[in-house]
Amino acid sequence: MMLNTAITEVKSFYDCDAFILSPQELPAFAYYTPRYRYKADSLLKFQAGLLPAGTQSVIGLTNKDISTSTGNHDDWGIFGLGYCPGKACVVSVFRLQNVAYDLYRERFVKVLLHELGHNMGLPHCNADSTCMMNDAKGTMAQVDQERKWLCPNCRKLLSN
Fold it and tell me: Is residue 77 within 8 Å of residue 111, measured between CB atoms?
């Protein structure tokens, strides 16, 4: 997938080391048969159990479609999910694909850093629509609008 990119970006953006799971079968209990995708909440619980001692966060990367329950939706398709704060996040490239490589890579990096930001305690941001911590609300247009940066409010939260 984009393992080397993930490792490099996490280190350079947050100056931290995160454990990225090696390829493995996704747990059957997380599969949501009616929509042919995996429940991200269940994947996070699974991943948290695989976190090596002393590791800040565990990142799961997949090309499978993932979802979560939100508001009026029992099964909302998403790009990624991370505990806030927490030690596990998952990113799916399923909805990021079928574009030129540079755009695919940019989207992947922003979603990855966004979800890891949640692990570090950053909530969704409404202060600046270009802040990477803005809630994409399931739209690729929002991901594309965001920049790979944290607004002053999010940087302040991160430094506390």
Answer: no
